[in-house]
Amino acid sequence: MISFKKYTDIVGDIAKKLKVSKDKAVNALIKAQERGINPLKWQQNLSLLTTFAAIVAEYDPTVDERMMTDKQ
Predict the structure, then answer these.
(1) DSSP state of 20
(2) Euclidean distance between the first and final Cα of the chain, in Å?
(3) Of 3, 26, 53, 72, which has the fewest CB atoms closer than 10 Å, so is most exposed?
(4) Contact status, residue 10 vs residue 40, Cβ threshold 8 Å
(5) Helices 46-57 & 4-18, crossing angle to 10 degrees?
(6) 46-72 burial, b for 16+ CB within 10 Å, e for fewer?
């Protein structure tokens, strides 16, 4: 069982890292716990998730590097 202090710290960290409100962070944490995800381990991997989301957001499927005519 996680103490209330640790729980609020996790919610605060999730809200800060994902740049969402604390209410949305609480809902995300509840859903994660319902699926059996350990919130302490999930919090550690959030930095990887935010980095991956930033990389995916920059992906443009309309650009095909194979078809470029200009040399770099």
Answers:
(1) -
(2) 56
(3) 72
(4) yes
(5) 20
(6) eeeeeeeeeeeeeeeeeeeeeeeeeee
Q: Read off the amino acid at residue 2.
A: I
pLDDT, average across residues 34-58: 73
Measured distance CA(21)–CA(23) in Å, rounded: 5
**Tokens representing 39?**
């919130």
Please count the CA atoms within 13 angstroms of the CA of 54 that sit on its side-chain side. 9
Q: Is the pLDDT score of 30 beyond 80? A: yes
Average pLDDT over residues 36-61: 71
Count of helix runs (H) and strand runs (E) in the chain:
4, 0
Distance CA 59, CA 72 (A): 20
